[in-house]
Amino acid sequence: MPAGAIVYDPAYRDHETGDHIESKSRIEAIMERIREDVRARRVQILEPFRAALDQVGANHDVQYIASVRRLAEAGGGWLDLDTYCSPKSYEVSLLAVGGVICAVDAVMADVHNVMAIVRPPGHHAVWNKAMGFCIFNNVACAAKYAISSKEIERVLIVDWDVHHGNGTQASFYGDSRVLYMSTHQRPFYPGTGDFEEVGSGEGEGFTVNLPLPPGVNDDGFFYAYDRLFIPIAQQFDPELTFVSAGQDIHYADPIGGMLATSNAFRGLTERVKSVTPQGQVIACLEGGYDLQALADSTLTICGSLFDFPTQVDEGHVNSGISKHVSDRVERAIKVQSKYWEV
Ligand SMILES: [Zn+2]
Q1: Which of 14, 80, 240, 243 has the greatest number of C-beta atoms within 10 Å?
Q2: Is 0.90 surpassed by the pTM of this model?
Q3: b or e along 24-60 (b: 16 or more beta carbons within 10 Å of the residue's beta carbon)?
């Protein structure tokens, strides 16, 4: 079995956000948990490079990119109501994009799956602005890089963060080469991601949204994947798969209202791996704000990606599929049956 890899650089801590909930403590907690685990700490660490301007510019307005650089050089400030830019945030944001691009290079060579532990997160960042703690859209930039530089024709992006990845959806809304699938709490920030948002033009049918009520448990998420996401993904037959891995669907998360346990992330990752069995899966950190839950959940993702056992005992059992969830899945199936056999 070829080896997998983790992308990480201590410089990701230099996006200084003070007492903001999206802080460097998040990746410190993850890396500490990985170092504690005898199997996880053996996984090779890939050192990221800084993305080139044109690699970020493929997904972002050059004026916006320059404005982030200027704000950082001027000592920092707020890019939007909840996204802070510190003096080093511009460089770190380039390193976050570069980290996921470096993961693309790795899985297209001989690395079997990658976990990219990067920050700032990316899935809310749109063409010309920062949103929701995100400066540049790491996954969207890397997907565009894979298409333009690696001759990849079918990219799957699965987004299980509790928030809808509006930025990623917008990047590929008219593009049939990228299938974007998201479960998210709704109504919730940022307000997008309704059932009927299915893509437009050539991209119609290549956006799959499953807005969910709060309180979805492990079984509910598995059910959504088994009934909706995995059948569609199998028909799409991706050559490369990204996961926008936001662990803020964990029951302990202070922002999200979902009930997933840490072990659920292993089950979700297994399902994603099943549609990309050759090892071209890149899980990229997005949200997740309870430090212990984030660290444990990211460990179980790594266990799945890199084939070592994990079992987190949280003393928290939840099972059964509520009608609120199955009704929403049925509604999404109805919408998507126009494009896919579901
Ligand atoms: Zn989130």
Answers
A1: 243
A2: yes
A3: bebbebbbebbeeeeebeebeebebebbeeebbebbb
Task: For tokens 């916006």, name the residue.
Answer: 64
- Residues designated catalytic: 124
Domains of the chain: 5-336 (3.40.800.20)
How far does the centroid of ligand 1 lie from the alpha carbon of residue 287, in Å? 4
Angle between helices 138-149 and 89-108 (to 10 degrees): 40
Helix%, strand%, coil% for the chain, nearest 5? 40, 15, 45
Ligand 1 centroid from CA 151, angstroms: 31
Quote the CA–CA distance of 71 and 75 in Å, as a whole number: 7
Torsion angles phi and psi, residue 180, rounded to 5: -105, 125
Distance CA 162, CA 249 (A): 5
**Residue 48, beta-bridge partner list:** none
Q: Which two tokens mark 78?
A: 């707020």
Q: Give residue-wise pLDDT tens across range 234-279.
A: 999 999 999 999 999 999 999 999 999 999 999 999 999 999 999 9
Indicate the length of the chain as a whole number.
342
CA of 4 to the centre of ligand 1 (A): 26
Contact partners, residue 126, CB within 8 Å, separation at least 6:
137, 166, 167, 170, 171
Q: How far is the CA of 192 from the centre of ligand 1 (A)?
A: 13
For residues 216 and 244, the answer to whether their CB atoms sit within 8 Å is: no
Give the burial class of 177: count Cβ atoms within 10 A of its Cβ; 0-12 exposed, 13-18 middle, 19 or more buried.
middle
